[in-house]
C-alpha cells in the first residue's frame, strides 16, 4: 500500500495537533503547518523528518504559503488530504462593541487564507483523487451573542465546502465540512486574549468535545471507501444543545 500524505494546517495546538498524532500513528505522512515553529519542531523530533514535514508560516501570508508548497520535499509533494483547520475566534463582544481589527483577522484567517490554501492545492488533490476536510463550526449554523463575524466566517466554510463538492463532481475528490460545538483546546484562550480562568469556567462541568474526538472523526472520514463522501457532520457535546430565540419588549 502506498503511504498517503495529509497536510494539516493549525498543527501546533488543539484539533490540528491531535490530528497529526492520529495520522502519523495510522501510517500517513503529515505536512504540519502553523506559526509556532518550536511546536512544529517537536513533531519532527518525536516522529522523524520522513514522517512529518513542517512549515512555519502565517497562513494569511500568501507568498509564504506559495513558498511552503514550492519547498515540499518530493516524498511530501503529492497531497492526498488537506485538513483546513487553522482558524480562530477573537472576542466575545456584541457587534456594536467589537474590534474591527479582530473581525479582519478572523476573515483573513478563517476565510481568505482557507480559500487560498484550497485554491493552491486543488491541482494536487485532483491528481491524487484526494480529499478536503474543512473545519467549520456549529457557530456557522446557530447564531449566538458575540458570535457575529466568527460565526459568519464559519458559515462561509460550510457553504464553500458544499460548493466545492459541486465543482469537483466527477474528479473523485471528496469534500467534508466538520462542524464541532464546544471543544476544549486553546480556542477560548485565544478568543479571550489568554484568560485561562475564562476558558476553565466555560468548559467546567460540560465534558466538552476533545481534540482527540475531532481527530478520530477526521481519521474516520479520510479512511472511508472512495465511493462515500460525508458532506457535513455536526458534533456537539451531549451537554450542549441549541436553544431559543430571544424577544425584546420595548
Ligand atoms: P487552537 O487555538 O487550539 O488551535 C488553532 C490552530 O490554528 C493553532 O495551531 C494555530 O497555530 C493555528 N492558527 C491560527 N491562526 C493562524 C495563522 N494566522 N497562521 C497559521 N496558523 C494559525 O483551536 P482549535 O484547535 O479549537 O481550533 C481549530 C479549528 O477548529 C479552528 O478553525 C476553530 O475555529 C475550529 N473550531 C473550534 C471549536 C472549539 O470549540 N474549540 C469548535 C468548532 C470549530 P499558531 O498559533 O501556531 O499559528
Ligand atoms: C467554536 C464553537 O460554539 O464556541 O467554533 O463558537 S463555539
For the largest sheet, list the strands in their spatial order.
3-2-1-4-5-6-7
Bound molecules: NADPH dihydro-nicotinamide-adenine-dinucleotide phosphate, 2-hydroxyethylsulfonic acid
Gyration radius, rounded = 18 Å
Tell me which CATH architecture applies here: 3-Layer(aba) Sandwich
CATH top level class name: Alpha Beta
According to CATH, the fold-level topology is: Rossmann fold
Structural class: alpha/beta
**Total beta strands:** 7
- Average pLDDT figure: 98
The coarse silhouette is: globular
H/I helix tally: 8
N-to-C CA distance? 67 Å
How much helical structure, as a percent, in the residues?
Answer: 40-55%
Largest sheet: 7 strands, parallel
Order of helices and strands: EHEHEHEHEHEHHHE
The CATH fourth-level homologous superfamily:
NAD(P)-binding Rossmann-like Domain
The residue ranges in which pLDDT falls below 50 over 5 or more consecutive positions are: none
Number of domains: 1
Q: Roughly what fraction of the amino acids lie in strands? A: 5-15%
Description:
The structure is a single chain. This protein has 250 residues and is an alpha/beta fold. It has one domain (5-235): Rossmann fold. Helices cover 42% and strands 14% of the residues. It contains eight helices and seven strands. Strands 3-2-1-4-5-6-7 form a seven-stranded parallel sheet, sandwiched between helices. Helix 1 (14-25) packs across helix 8, helix 3 (62-70) packs parallel to helix 4 (100-127) and helix 4 packs parallel to helix 5 (148-167). The longest helix is centred in the middle third of the chain and has 28 residues, at 100-127. The radius of gyration is 18 Å and the shape is globular. It binds NADPH dihydro-nicotinamide-adenine-dinucleotide phosphate and 2-hydroxyethylsulfonic acid (8X3). 2-hydroxyethylsulfonic acid (8X3) is lined by residues 137-139, 147, 181-182.
Amino acid at each position: 500500500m502506498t503511504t498517503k500524505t495529509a497536510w494539516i494546517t493549525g498543527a501546533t495546538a488543539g484539533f490540528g495537533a491531535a490530528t497529526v498524532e492520529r495520522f502519523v500513528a495510522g501510517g500517513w505522512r503529515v505536512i504540519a503547518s502553523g506559526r509556532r515553529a518550536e511546536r512544529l519542531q517537536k513533531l519532527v523530533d518525536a516522529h522523524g523528518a520522513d514522517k512529518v514535514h513542517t512549515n512555519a508560516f502565517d497562513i494569511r501570508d500568501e507568498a509564504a504559503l506559495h513558498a511552503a508548497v514550492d519547498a515540499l520535499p518530493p516524498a511530501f509533494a503529492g497531497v492526498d488530504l488537506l485538513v483546513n483547520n487553522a482558524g480562530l475566534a477573537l472576542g466575545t463582544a456584541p457587534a456594536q462593541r467589537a474590534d474591527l481589527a479582530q473581525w479582519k483577522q478572523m476573515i483573513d484567517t478563517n476565510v481568505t487564507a482557507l480559500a487560498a490554501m484550497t485554491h493552491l492545492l486543488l491541482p494536487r488533490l485532483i491528481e491524487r483523487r484526494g480529499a478536503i476536510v474543512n473545519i467549520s463550526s456549529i457557530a456557522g449554523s446557530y447564531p449566538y451573542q458575540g458570535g457575529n463575524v466568527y460565526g459568519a466566517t464559519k458559515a462561509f466554510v460550510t457553504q464553500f465546502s458544499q460548493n466545492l463538492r459541486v465543482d469537483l463532481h466527477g474528479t473523485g475528490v471528496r469534500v467534508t465540512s466538520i462542524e464541532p460545538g464546544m471543544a476544549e483546546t486553546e480556542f477560548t484562550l485565544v478568543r479571550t486574549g489568554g484568560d485561562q480562568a475564562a476558558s476553565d469556567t466555560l468548559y467546567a462541568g460540560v465534558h466538552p468535545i476533545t481534540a482527540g474526538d475531532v481527530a478520530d472523526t477526521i481519521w474516520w472520514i479520510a479512511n472511508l471507501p472512495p465511493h462515500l463522501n460525508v458532506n457535513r457532520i455536526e458534533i456537539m457535546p451531549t451537554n450542549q444543545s441549541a436553544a431559543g430565540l430571544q424577544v425584546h419588549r420595548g
